[in-house]
Amino acid sequence: EKGGYDYFMLKEIAEQPKAVADTLLGRIDASGALTLDEVRISAAELREVDKVVIVACGTAFHAGLIAKYAIEHWTRIPCEVELASEFRYRDPILDARSLVIAISQSGETMDTLMALRHAREQGSRVLAICNTNGSTIPRESDAVLYTHAGPEVAVASTKAFLTQLVACYLVALYLGQVRGTKWADEIRAVIRDLAEISGEVERVLETMEPVRALARGLADKNTVLFLGRHVGYPVALEGALKLKELAYMHAEGFAAGELKHGPIALIEDDLPVVVVVPSPRGRSVLHDKIVSNIQEIRARGARTIVIAEEGDEAVVPYADHLIRIPVTPTLLQPLVATVPLQVFACELATARGNEVDQPRNLAKSVTVE
Ligand code: F6R
Prior knowledge:
This protein is an alpha/beta fold. The chain is built from 13 helices and 10 strands.
């Protein structure tokens, strides 16, 4: 049932191109418009939304952090993202015009469930993004957009994460479409890019051997840091989470701009630091800033592991290890940039003799608060 792979996690990583494509399937009509009929919240209501609040835990929370960039960029509706376990206990400000999005692979995470119940009590509409048909979170929500990742067996989430991203992009574009904040042409262009992304994920998967070799070489390290900016920041958090749960290593993700406010003190000789580099096209200021961050940490002895777009030559002099990812639109980059980090964590876990599919102390669905 592992389809020839040693672990479910490897199988699920490999299934990501299909999972991404399946999550798009049937949601775009012949004219290129989105048809999210399953989102049973009326267009009139969606036009009234004045705030989006995303609640989730763990990896799903990281998908939410990325969704914020897309939602605010494409719809201009303010969007907050909060850990479900924190949300309910701080008396959040919600009303009938707030759209709450609960993201959960299993649909059974207790913290996320309690957060959505609280939101509904305040009169907010709740849209679930979920991978498990008929589970509790979609049943208790006003509407659900299913991710079509197929069953995810490995405890560490991989393909579900990529499909959560796709679902978030779809919701963001749909909100833009319904509210007329985005022109049909632009939505169509993003949809076209999304449709191609599955092939790009496939290409990333074909080039992972050097990443595996690199990971094996780091098996005796204690700490790995991850840096990113913009949507690369949540990707860095996700890379660190994967490494903690699978390799049982100390791993932390930082916003690269925060380095000088503290974390740079952690840099010491030969410390591996993974840097997710934004595209040099588009937001080139961000790109240039992160290149100087890489220079700074390398000058202090860090071993730099740089994830950068094909053709980005500016990073080459400062990369001890260079992992190439395909050219993608800035907001969609997490779909390709996360994949090497999953492979990296999985290989490090194996090299350290850990149980990949069933890491110690963890459960696939966390049904206690
Ligand atoms: C990490 C991981 C967890 C889950 C979290 C939420 O790899 O799998 O962090 O993402 O427990 O689970 P769901 O999405 O089922 O609500």
